[in-house]
Design a protein that fits this description.
The protein is about 60% helix and about 5% strand. By secondary structure, it is mainly α.
Length: about 325
């Protein structure tokens, strides 16, 4: 076999790994009808998160992650270990499956992975609660890989995630995970502080107005990111709507991107607050320039259509 044959073989094998979009379609179709009520509507799940905004990011499917991440000594990967940590919430989660299972860990059909963990002996069903419970095997696995739930709750940077820590820890004993996290966070903090100080100092000297604008944008972006993380965790629609209403009391998003500009209307639509949705879209048309005009008109038409359907249902 020649070198080109080897290259062709590797390329072919690589192409067998499903993309995020392929995984999304396949797993969505595999979810049993009885389970669908525990997930967001299919339209919520996309191959890219925050598409059309400064935070656009492609989802990496679990199958793709397996190619580059390191399994535990027993063969479990990061999201499977995290599922052990949260097992007592499932199955039949009261507030549904959080969106982070797809957007952070590349798993759309969460229920099937839990079933697999039970089949492999990590979980059992507690007869009294009807929820999963760790077996001794599951307890040992979680104890030896405590870095996973810790990073899920304490990850500070998109440039250093649980997947990065997984690579740094490698195989074997992982008890030194806190030492590695603290060192990485300190390094990133120092680099970011110095870089930002230099940039902002130069900007303030040459463009004072731009400096003030950027300061405000940076503050709002951090608040939006934190709010999104909270919403992904608790799925509290009323809370996230209140958050975005406060943003609009201050004039709306201070950064561009149709995804963020229309975030509040999307949330209103989800809550079936159609009049509020139309009001905010009208504000976008009036105050945010012609760039969003076509999308605003399209939104109004969509909202009015949904409103009419709701009214028709009530009249039956």
């Amino acid at each position: 076999m020649g070198i080109f044959d080897i290259f062709k073989k590797k390329t072919k094998e690589k192409n067998l790994i499903p993309t995020a979009q392929e995984t999304l379609l396949k797993q969505t179709a595999a979810i049993p009808e009885s389970e669908k009520k525990y997930y967001q509507p299919d339209s919520y799940y996309m191959a890219k998160s925050h598409e059309g905004t400064p935070f656009e990011n492609g989802v990496v499917s679990f199958e793709q992650r397996k190619e580059t991440s390191i399994p535990s000594d027993r063969g479990l990967y990061v999201p499977e270990i995290l599922m052990l940590h949260f097992c007592k919430k499932y199955p039949n989660p009261k507030n549904g499956y959080p969106g982070y299972w797809w957007y952070k860990y590349g798993i759309r059909d969460v229920g099937s992975v839990y079933e697999s963990l039970m089949e492999r002996g990590y979980l059992i069903i507690n007869e009294k609660t009807g929820k999963y419970e760790l077996t001794n095997l599951g307890k040992a696995e979680l104890e030896e890989n405590a870095y996973v739930p810790y990073m899920h709750s304490h990850s500070k940077y998109t440039t250093f995630t649980v997947w990065d820590l997984n690579q740094l820890l490698g195989t074997g004993d992982k008890s030194n995970y806190m030492e590695i996290i603290e060192k990485k966070h300190a390094d990133i903090d120092n680099r970011n502080v110095e870089s930002n100080k230099t940039f902002m100092k130069e900007l303030k000297a040459i463009d004072p107005d731009g400096y003030r604008l950027l300061k405000n944008q940076d503050k709002q972006i951090k608040a939006v990111q934190a709010a999104d993380e909270k919403y992904a965790e608790d799925n509290d629609l009323e809370w996230i709507i209140n958050f975005w209403e406060e943003i609009w009391k201050d004039g709306g998003p201070k950064f561009e991107g149709s995804g963020w500009m229309f975030r509040l209307p999307d949330l209103y639509i989800k809550a079936k607050r159609y009049d509020d949705a139309i009001d905010i879209v009208q504000k976008i048309k009036k105050n945010k320039g012609s760039y969003y005009l076509n999308k605003a008109n399209s939104y109004i038409a969509k909202i009015e259509e949904r409103q009419a359907k709701e009214t028709a249902k009530k009249m039956k």
